[in-house]
């Protein structure tokens, strides 16, 4: 997954790739290996160079705002990450994405199926940890962009939902 990192008004290219038991983060020409990555709702912890870190973050459709050790960073998703490999537009809050790259191990819905806010739609695995992707709206599944067994990048639409009032 490619990002642009904004730090102290300087912009850096960042690439995050999932390894078997690690993430490899490249910033400019420097590679960093991240182990024991654990994602929570608005925070994550990881180990790098035998030191454990905890980050806090918030995001919108285009940026991730990160706090690490009292310093603040902005990660801007690259064009491909914003719109997916097919180039289709995101549909506001009606897309379900993974917050980290990984393997789509289970799809729990089909196109045309009605879902409610809180329903688990898919499961993504990264570094032997599974993350449930839940709907945040009531609606109908309109499109599924990947199949079980596919690698998915972070913040790329996996399931698209048409908002509706369920009866």
List keywords for this structure.
four-stranded antiparallel beta sheet, mainly beta, 2 domains, globular, OB fold (Dihydrolipoamide Acetyltransferase, E2P), 16 strands, 167 residues, Glycoprotein, Type 4 Pilin, eight-stranded antiparallel beta barrel
Describe the protein.
The chain is mostly beta strands and 167 residues long. It folds into two domains: 2-80, Glycoprotein, Type 4 Pilin, CATH 3.30.700.30; 92-163, RNA polymerase II/Efflux pump adaptor protein, barrel-sandwich hybrid domain (OB fold (Dihydrolipoamide Acetyltransferase, E2P)). Helices cover 3% and strands 57% of the residues. It has an eight-stranded antiparallel β-barrel with strand order 1-2-3-4-5-6-7-8. Strands 9-16-14-11 form a four-stranded antiparallel beta sheet, with no helix packed on it. Strand 4 and strand 5 form a beta hairpin. The N and C termini lie far apart (39 Å). Mean pLDDT is 81; it is low at 79-92.
């Amino acid at each position: 997954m490619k990002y642009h990192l904004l730090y102290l008004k300087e912009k850096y290219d960042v690439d995050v790739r999932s390894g078997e038991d690690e993430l490899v983060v490249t910033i400019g020409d420097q590679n960093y290996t991240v182990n024991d990555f654990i994602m929570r709702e608005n925070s994550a912890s990881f180990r790098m160079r035998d030191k454990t870190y905890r980050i806090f973050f918030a995001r919108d459709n285009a940026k991730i705002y990160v706090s690490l050790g009292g310093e603040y960073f902005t990660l801007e998703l690259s064009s491909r990450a914003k719109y997916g490999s097919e180039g289709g537009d995101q549909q506001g809050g009606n897309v379900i994405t993974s917050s980290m790259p990984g393997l789509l191990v289970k799809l729990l819905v089909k196109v045309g199926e009605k879902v409610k806010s809180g329903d688990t739609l898919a499961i993504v695995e990264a570094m032997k940890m599974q993350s449930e992707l839940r709907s945040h709206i009531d609606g109908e599944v309109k499109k599924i962009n990947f199949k079980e067994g596919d690698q998915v990048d972070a913040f790329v639409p996996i399931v698209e939902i048409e908002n509706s009032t369920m009866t």
